[in-house]
Amino acid sequence: MSTLDMNNPIYRRRCVINKVTLALSFLAVVFGLFWLFWIIATLLYKGGAQFTFTLFTQITPAPGSPGGLINAIVGSAMMAGVGTLIGTPVGILAGTYLAEYGRRGWLAPATRFINDVLLSAPSIVVGLFVYTVYVAQAKHFSGWAGAVVLSVLVIPVVVRTTDDMLKLVPNSLREACAALGCPEWKMITLVCYRAARSGIVTGVLLAIARIVGETAPLVFTALNSQFMTWNMNAPMANLPMTIYQYAMSPYDDWQRLAWAGALLITLLVLLTNIVARALFSKPNV
Predict the structure, then answer these.
(1) Residues of the chain whose pLDDT is less than 50?
(2) Burial class, 40, CB count within 10 angstroms (exposed 0-12 / middle 13-18 / buried 19+)
(3) 3 state DSSP class of 2
């Protein structure tokens, strides 16, 4: 008797279990997508009408006055940019040590464990840490402090991605370089980095997508400002804090700006993830 015979009770039971599991999985996907599309639809409905030229050209207004979010957009871009410039080299070098130099010994596994803890740590804890070691010593909030806390959030993402991507590089490439007499530092920079380039860039983009929406750490570091400023040594406007303050306000025009800011961050994160996936799908050179 064939094991695929429908008269076989074992086969019929497995088919039923498979169909039930498939149905439950499909319902779970529909349930998750339902809330996701509801959030996106609400953001488009509430904030889409505020996407005007004024939003990107005027600063945050007083209640009842027309205005936009340009000071918050500029502040977020500056702090995220500086934070990425600080955190990316540190993350790439640390990930390179873990993947290339720390294959033996206890330091690399211990570092991976600590990095995973930092990766999953609440961002408000990191913000409180930077407040203690930076803001409390400087005795004032600043854009620099906001950039520092964002860089701390960038580092574990880049470390993990760089470590994983370099470990995927075939050892045959390293052995070929060693056979040609190539020093290890040159093998890493010219061969391993090139092979893992798209994955490392993807990690950096994912790190940027994470920090642009962070609010809690900026409460303890950059705070916020109602004015346009390029001085990073002073409190600086940023989108997450502006959204929080305006959404909690009793003024309808401020609440509409908060919805527009939330939609702007969502679209930015969505675009960054699309670019990251497009880069990751490209074959390595």
Answers:
(1) 285
(2) middle
(3) coil
Query: What confidence score (pLDDT) does residue 3 get?
Result: 54
What pLDDT is recorded for position 285? 45
Q: Residue 64: phi, psi to the nearest 5?
A: 85, 0
CA nearest to 210, candidates 129, 158, 127, 154: 154
Determine the pLDDT at residue 283. Answer: 58
Burial 125-148 (b: 16+ CB within 10 A, else e): ebbbebbeebbeeeeebbbbbbbb
Distance CA(141)–CA(146), nearest Å, equals: 8
Query: What is the DSSP secondary structure assignment for residue 191, as one 8-state letter?
Result: I
Rounded Cα–Cα distance for residues 242 and 225 (Å) = 9
d(CA 216, CA 121): 12
pTM, entire model: 0.87
Give the pLDDT confidence score for residue 213 in this predicted structure: 86
Q: How far apart are CA 58 and CA 68, in angstroms?
A: 5
**CA 131 – CA 153 distance, rounded (Å):** 14
